[in-house]
Amino acid sequence: MKAVLGIDTSCYTTSAAVMNIDGQLLGEHRRLLTVPPGEKGLQQSQAVFQHVQSVAGVFQALAPVLRETELVAVAASTKPRPVEGSYMPVFTVSEALGRVLAHTLGVPFWGTTHQEGHLLAGLWSCRIGLPPSFLAVHLSGGTSELLHVTAKPQE
Length: 155
Hints:
Elements: E1 2-9, E2 13-20, E3 25-32, H1 44-67, E4 70-79, H2 90-105, E5 109-113, H3 114-125, E6 133-140, E7 143-150
Helix pairs in contact: 1-2
């Protein structure tokens, strides 16, 4: 079965999911990063280290699904938002892993953003197709935005 692998390493969760090309979720696994008691969050370097420690377990949990699929692409979050200058070190983990897997498998790598992943996951979970234009409220990691979203033409 042909499928796409998605990877996201945000400020608090290491995540991966496999969907077939018809949009059916075949498997997903995530690990929350550990915030020490009494702390309000993680420094980026601490989060990157925890992601590096977590990816093996996440992929071990997905291994049965991955063995049954033919990956045709790998998508990964490469930055927080689709704007110039958007950067957080945590996303270098998902980008590096995604690029390595795509290159090794000889399939396309699709770089995306954490914010776009949230928006598309929300539409998918509501079984709504991608409208050409819509308004969305994005709440993530202590930030909030009202967005006017316009779909990109498919490449």
